[in-house]
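Quick illustration for those who missed Monday's session on complexes.
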Amino acid sequence: MRAELALALLLAAPAARAGDLGSEVTFARQHRAQFSVYAGFGRRVVFDSGASDLPGGDWDTLIIQGELPDQAVHFIAARDGGPLAWVDLQVRRFPDGRFWARGRFPKGAGGVRLRAVDDGAATDHEVTIYGAEVFSDGPDASTTPPPSRGPMDPGAARPFVHGRAEWRAAAPTNPLSPDPLPWRVTLHHTDGRYTASLSESLEETRFIQDFHQNGRKWSDIAYHFVVDPLGNIIEGRPLETLGAHTLNNNEGNVGIVLLGTYHAPKNDKTTAAQLAAVAAIGRFLVKRFGIEPSSLKGHRDYKQTDCPGDLAYPKLAELRTAFGSAPAVARKPRRGATPASLPSTVDWDQSAKNSAANPSATR
Ligand SMILES: [Zn+2]
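Prediction with zinc ion bound:
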């Protein structure tokens, strides 16, 4: 293991990234950092970079990459100077331990302070950070910093979801970008058909995907979950992939859409079963990812739009309360239904490789 790691260090090339790069971040002029993690000490900070050298220019994104043998270790970072506001870096780790991690910050200048947190590593090991860089991801960057996150439970019980196979989903037209640690939820309506049966809802979902893929030229249906008036939950874009439902604010954002038009002149009405289904998704997300229930918003909270409609928007308050309440009894699968494989059916290794080669293929 040590020999392999040493070889990996020798072979490691500097971070290669197509397109516009920001500034390399160095710590006491070193761009590489290495530290040991010892098993059996419980949750604690195992690495603190101290303040980095000052990178040039304003930045809103930090990305690091290296070797992470145990996925129990994660990273947080803050902009140096002033009170430290720690941001969770979203980690993408391949089975062989190669990883990159990325965090978004309010735009500004300043050095970086980086910490690694061990949540309970199984074995002693070494973590290596090959490099870190900061850059500005452009004017589209979300200015909302991720809120604090509660505990995450990978075994959280999930509601039953009708999988993509049930509505004969087309494959994504481009690889979807990973977005593995969502921290907020946005409610939409389709401004479309108010369906009256599961089969009609599956067909409407298939239509929406076609509209988004071939009409709007996006990679897949924009939303992660589709909820019909009967309370059926249908899988959209796989969870833990970047959505395309809230312009400039898709990062970390789970999109849930209600089938129908909850706005004048059509004025479809939300149903109790439908709201219960949205609440079940929300409770799962809160438990699984530590998402704050207060992060649930309507599309109109982000931009000028009627979405999710004047009749659905007022339901957000009770949904936030429901997101934070005790889980209801798990819904039973209907007979003949194909369960979706949550959290994701994506081949991450392949999609990460592809999106690195084609970073614009995110919608
Ligand atoms: Zn919307």
